[in-house]
Specification:
Two copies of one chain form a homodimer. By secondary structure, the first copy, chain A, is of the alpha/beta class. Chain A is built from nine helices and 16 strands. The N terminus of chain A is likely disordered.
């Protein structure tokens, strides 16, 4: 739990809007604001025309429009890059603090891209747009950020085990339905994702660069690591794979430093890092699992060891699991908002 | 299909014994021998006392004993390391060619450890024991072996996505039952594996070395790569993870060479390699998937690209899927037998 970043009780309350309120991340945004006691004066839930009129608890969903941000102090966007490109500048021009969960502005040099525990100093003092990173980036950096205390990070190699939630609520439903059909011996035609998902896994479905062979998800993750760490030349490679897990991303990371590093020192640093829970019990064979990370604010970090393929001892191997909808999206956005609204 | 290694029709037929015939690999051994037209004169199915008397097709399973190998020309062992340690030397002393799928003899310097396409030259001329590698090793080396044509391999980093079958038929049943219970909202207590398996993944359950933090599966895989490649000092690191997939292992590999290498040259080499099928369609986003590899003799190889974290261009990134029960066990064993029996 991130007690230290919780807002003060006496704080002024904000008029909040959530764009994409009916999506998997939108629902978690509402939950995070409530659970963390964010001072909300009013909450406006916005979505596409199609979802307008739908009730979510005590709220009625409204269609997003250029007039929807009047009087809004804080706007969360989680409805895809094109909605963000259209409406986030409108909200910001109306004086709102905007936290955008889409990829629309992440690589814009004028827009801060922030994991609060890692580069909170990049947050602006006044209104404007702040970008929330890709879910893999946000989970990975919860470990990599604090490990910079060991030395400069010179190379990162990652292989991911990504949950269905990264492709939205419909993909989570498709995984469940496809698996039920498989167990019943019935045919199932995937509609949300391009490949069979029951008891299967596949390379992330983002478009693949015909020249480099990296897909769009991997390109995002690599570019965002460089931007948030402030290392434009960081040597980094990711392989992004979707696995039949519902809502937490896992990843195997190989992290090289500019000097020899010890796994014991890494473990101590991670144990003290906010937003991280070390799960690294060699005797009991207990390490991070996505089922245990699901619904947790903390990123689970384990398998912390010296990489035996580096005889110089400059490389660590790690395994992480973090809730894709929380740390990977809604929680990170709310943590940004807590700092902006202070 | 590996047409070139099929035995000739005019070949002498062998008296064959399979120890562990009722296990997941044992069943596949029987299937592989039939499907590949191995010249079998007689087939003796052996297992523990508990399975004796059980019928498998036209055969009645017998209990393994020191007398069970009389007249046997070729014995496959797949009943765990302790059964192999007890009975494989008995079979070999009786003059049988022994192919052992357990870990009992793999690292014995006197016993060849063989993937036929990679180090077939290590096979002995006469009777004795030959060890079949760990399933991850066998799948990985189907790609790494031929890629040595590009240059010497200097470093390998692997992250695996391992199927339930690696822990036997009972683990496959547990994955199915746990998933059905999860979908029905019913509780399920795992008995075969130590962690919940439905929509979850976890670090391989082999015991973890308290000093290095590597588990027994990873240690096997690393040591076997070194032995089969004949590179006792190969720099190698694996992270072995079990995923909720039934019977094919996948893995993300980072492979460094002693010189710059091109992904195009790698693709050409792999396209010509026996036992490999290149699945690497960037435009259609079609890459290796375990569901497609299941029941296939070939290992699927794709995501072949130059690793962007190596500015010197000496490193390739790959993603593989291979049937754990076939290439990872039964098929590799039968391919060894085909060469031994020629």
């Amino acid at each position: 739990m991130l007690q230290s970043t919780r807002p003060q009780a006496a704080q002024k309350a904000a008029n909040v809007a959530i764009v994409g309120a009916t999506g998997a991340v939108g629902v978690e945004l509402v939950g995070c604001l409530e659970r963390r006691g964010f001072p909300v004066a009013s909450l406006r839930l916005l979505a596409s025309e199609r979802s307008a009129g739908r009730r979510l608890g005590e709220h009625v969903v409204e269609a997003v429009s250029i007039d929807a941000f009047d009087g809004v102090d804080l706007a969360f966007f989680s409805a895809g890059a094109s909605v963000s490109r259209t409406y986030a500048p409108v909200a910001a021009a109306n004086g709102a603090l905007v936290v955008d969960n889409s990829s629309a502005f992440r690589m814009d040099p004028a827009i801060p891209l922030v994991v609060p525990e890692v580069n909170g100093e990049a947050l602006p003092a006044g209104p404007g747009i702040v970008a929330n990173p890709n879910c893999v980036t946000a989970v990975s950096l919860m470990a990599l950020g604090p490990l910079r205390a060991l030395g400069a990070i010179t190379r990162v190699i990652g292989a991911t085990y990504q949950a269905a939630s990264g492709a939205g609520a419909a993909a989570m439903e498709e995984l469940t339905a496809a698996t039920a059909a498989h167990l019943a011996g019935e045919p199932f035609t995937p509609k949300v994702l391009p490949h069979p998902y029951a008891f299967n896994l596949f390379s992330h479905n983002a478009a693949v660069d015909p020249d480099t062979g990296y897909n769009g998800e991997e390109e995002k993750v690599m570019a965002e690591h460089r931007k948030i760490l402030g290392q434009p030349d960081l040597r980094i490679s990711f392989t992004c794979i979707r696995v039949p897990v519902l809502r937490a991303h896992s990843m195997a990371l190989t992290v090289e430093f500019d000097r020899p590093v010890s796994p014991e020192a890494a473990r101590e640093i991670l144990q003290a890092a906010p937003g991280v829970r070390v799960v690294d019990d060699r005797a009991e064979n207990r390490f991070p699992m996505p089922l245990e990370a699901s619904g947790e604010e903390d990123v689970l970090v384990g398998r912390i060891r010296s990489d035996l393929s580096d005889p110089e001892g400059r490389t660590l191997a790690l395994f992480l699991s973090g809730d894709q909808l929380l740390r990977g999206a809604a929680l990170n956005a709310v943590l940004i908002a807590e700092r902006l609204w202070r």
